[in-house]
Design a protein that fits this description.
By secondary structure, the chain is mainly β. It is built from six helices and 22 strands. A hairpin with a 7-residue loop joins β7 and β8. The N terminus is likely disordered.
């Protein structure tokens, strides 16, 4: 009888069943620091970590950033850890839907989801599908809230050995949730939406001239088993073409980034096998934008906004402060054996469910790329973002450690529904003219 009970428990886990989460789980998920922030012996606000003392603080690093500091790529300036609250309506939606969400039989199947964080309970290493649950928390996270925009958004391609800037691209990016909305009207869904598109991503290039009006549109379906629809408009060709699935893992516009890399991971849950590897307290670039000491005035914005600057080898890393935060170590292994990477390890922030650090390994299992995503608190950014409780993407760095090359990004993020009309996320919009 005991063996039968164990077998039943294992089969329930494999099928995605789990004990119902509680209000206490929700509180712990969104307030992981209510009993205090994590600590590492000798580490405090104001500490600078470089190759001379990094061994002392090795436990505070993911393997990729540790190697960079050890090899003299970059110094890390530490600030106090702070709270990054999430949108109140998103938290309440999580409470409202407690116990209604479960995994389906197959990776990429989710049942009963309406809104909020699907699995607010603490992940369990004994749960064989804990990684998959974290992947769903990431997919349905509150990044950009119901909608957000980045304008301007500067990408730079850099030679990491010499620091030479090879190209600067000026973008605008837009993000819109068409379903599972919690704050911006209409709630819960923008209609008509016959294809059940969950989220749209739209980007447009303004500079340089040879890429002007290049546009990218990604339509992600709520049904994770359906392939994304992705379209590219090349201004010089004046036509829209649909991207083949494999093209999302090609270098995007010659950068070090794949489309699949956007926001840490821009793919379907079903495209990866997910493994939860435990909790690690690591240094990540979460900060207050307006309090940073090294903002650049290179780009002249009419409102006086200044972008994050870069430093380190090749000026490849954002020059911001880092703080020690609780992260879930989530390993993603491609289902497609022809994928250019063997795995990526995302360090999901336990409060926001978005990664400040991602480490990517090549097909042979060697460290390939270091991906850093800087996050600003919205109350210390543009006035229009104050009170949104949306942790803002503020900078990024994708460093190809093998090619000695990097792509950097500087954001001006706006949480403003008026900047993201639904028509912007339709293929017809891309043909609207130059």
């Amino acid at each position: 009888m005991k063996l039968k009970c164990i077998a039943l428990a294992v089969s329930l886990l494999a099928a995605g069943a789990s004990f119902a989460a509680t209000d206490a789980d929700v509180d712990n998920s969104f307030q992981p620091y209510k009993k205090g922030f994590p600590t590492v012996a000798g580490l405090s606000a104001g500490t600078t970590i470089n190759k001379s003392n990094v061994e002392q603080f090795k436990d505070a690093f993911d393997p990729g950033l540790y190697e960079m500091v050890k090899d003299g790529w970059v110094d890390i300036n530490v600030a106090a850890s702070t709270d990054f609250p999430q949108p109140k309506a998103y938290i309440e939606a999580t409470r409202k839907n407690l116990g209604k969400v479960k995994l389906g039989a197959n990776n990429g199947d989710l049942e009963g989801y309406a809104a909020g964080r699907p699995f607010p309970e603490e992940p369990d290493l004994k749960d064989p599908r804990a990684g998959e649950k974290l992947a769903w928390n990431f997919k349905y996270g509150a990044n950009y809230g119901d909608s957000g925009a980045i304008y301007p958004f500067y990408w730079r391609y850099r030679n990491a050995a010499t620091g030479q800037i090879e190209r600067t691209i000026k973008f605008e990016f837009h993000f819109l949730n068409l379903m599972h909305r919690v704050e911006q009207a209409p709630i819960p869904e923008i209609t008509p939406n016959p294809s059940k598109i969950y989220r749209g991503t739209y980007a447009k290039v303004y500079e340089p001239a040879e890429l002007k009006n290049t546009q990218l549109l990604i339509q992600r379906f709520d049904d994770d088993q359906k392939l994304d629809d992705a379209y590219l408009y090349l201004g010089f060709q004046r036509r829209v073409r649909r991207l083949a699935t494999g093209q999302t893992t090609d270098a995007f516009l010659g950068s070090d980034m794949m489309i699949e890399d956007f926001e840490g991971y821009n793919g379907r849950v079903s495209d990866m096998k997910w493994a939860y590897k435990g909790v690690k307290n690591i240094l990540v670039p979460f900060f207050n934008h307006n309090e940073q000491m090294h903002l650049t005035d290179e780009y002249k914005e009419s409102d006086g906004y200044k972008f994050v600057d870069f430093h380190g080898r090749g000026n490849c890393m954002p020059n911001v402060t880092y703080q020690l935060r609780k992260a879930y170590v989530l390993e993603a292994t491609p289902v497609n054996p022809n994928h250019p990477m063997s795995k990526k390890v995302m360090y999901l922030d336990s409060q926001t469910m978005y990664p400040g650090r991602v480490v990517i390994y090549d097909r042979k299992g060697a460290l390939w790329k270091n991906f850093t995503i800087g996050k600003s608190h919205p109350d210390h950014h543009l006035p229009g973002n104050k009170g949104s409780n949306v942790s803002l993407d503020d900078s990024f760095s994708q460093v190809d450690m093998q090619a000695m090359h990097c792509t950097t990004g500087q954001f001006k993020t706006h949480i403003d529904a008026k900047l993201n009309p639904p028509g912007l996320f339709q293929v017809q919009n891309m043909r609207g003219g130059d």
